[in-house]
Input
Amino acid sequence: MRYDPNQLPDQVLAFLEERHLASLTTLRADGSPHVVPVGFSWDDSQRTVRIITFEPSTKVSNVLRGNTRAAVSQVDGGRWLTLEGVARVTRDPAEVKLALDGYARRYREPSTRSDRVAIEISVDRVMGRA
Output
């Protein structure tokens, strides 16, 4: 089922608040998928997924290379959601703090890193069964 990212139903929003890990898919230089487990937060007002990470990670390299489409998929039994959109890396301290705060609310307080950055995905497609 496809959902309108501008008007997600309550059950989808509730699923995005539950503590579940997800997989992030970005594209390698050769076009093949790079899939890794991540924690993420959802900002419904901005229709944005935020993922904390560190500068030298492969996922950051993939986004910086210009392969800007990315997807986050969350699964719990028969319930699942995939959020897709254009990804970007941010080093802006205020934006990284939003990602850190979202992660802390959903999972736990993250460890401190000097090379912390965030990946933001501006979501334009949501599919799933929540």
About this structure: The helical segments are 10-17, 58-64, 93-106. The CA atoms of residues 41 and 103 lie 6 Å apart. Residues 2-125 form a domain with the Pnp Oxidase; Chain A fold (CATH 2.30.110.10). The chain has a mean pLDDT of 96.
